[in-house]
Amino acid sequence: MNTKTSSPWSFFIIALGISWFFWLWIILLNWNVFTFPAIIFGAIGLLGPTISEILLIFHSKNNKEWIDYRQRIFDIKRIGKKWHFVIWFTFPILNIVAIALSIFTGSDLPDFETVKNLLSNPWQIFPFAFFILIYGPLPEELGWRGYALDKLQERYNALVSSLILGVMWSLWHVPLFFMKGQWQHDALNFGTLDFWIFILNTIVLSILFTWIYNNTNHSTLSAILFHFMCNFTGQILPLTMFARLYSFILTIVLTISVVIIWGPKTLTRHQNKKKTKS
């Protein structure tokens, strides 16, 4: 299938432009993002990557590209059993090890407030999981991996594509550090060590997303689920400042191992085979 219909840079300009435009009003007017009407502006901004890819696909007037795009979202068969294991257990393992290391070196045990609340009100688990899904993983990955990553990989190898996408992905998040009510603003704060860990970790994680995406026959669903587990695990197994540092180090080690073992060209075991898509 020919997907060379637009530049990935068009996607980034539109996605960041839409998101930053609506988020800017929340920042300038000093609103809390979870109050009205800020929540409307915040939601539209969150949809920036999704709106961008929809506009570009429709502009291409390529029906095959649209069909392929939908298949990669809904076709769960693309994800093999071992990749389900990677998707569902990578972040829980990373967080558990990071928490253990932080406790071993003198940090306090996290309070696990979210877990306590969910255990006392089990009926909230599904609404909570659904909120986590739509508040980031779904609207973001429909654009980042669902559209931009393939456009980048038409021009660069998998590692370079991941780094470019990771930089743009991290820049997209920067306004959140100035928005009251956002975790990035309330817990991390702009310019702190936590801020830089978040920015750099986003770039590194982009490589792992590409690794999974390329090994699941370009499944957008795999990226959505992996992103969901990242956010969900962060709520269930919260990290203190030192634990976040340990998690970042562990993520770097894992990512370097992936690049060495699978290779930077495609991050798959089929380095010399032509990329094919259904």
UniProtKB/TrEMBL annotation:
- The membrane spanning regions, by residue number, are 9-28, 34-58, 85-105, 125-144, 156-175, 195-213, 220-239, 245-264
Q: Which domain of life is it from?
A: Bacteria
Under the heading InterPro entries, the entry gives: MmRce1-like, Rce1/LyrA-like_dom
Locate the CAAX prenyl protease 2/Lysostaphin resistance protein A-like domain: which residues?
123-232
Q: Which UniProt keywords apply?
A: Hydrolase, Membrane, Metalloprotease, Protease, Transmembrane, Transmembrane helix
| GO molecular function terms attached to this record | metallopeptidase activity
One family from Pfam that matches here is Rce1-like
What name does the UniProt record give this protein? Answer: CPBP family intramembrane metalloprotease
Question: Source species, please?
Answer: Marinitoga aeolica
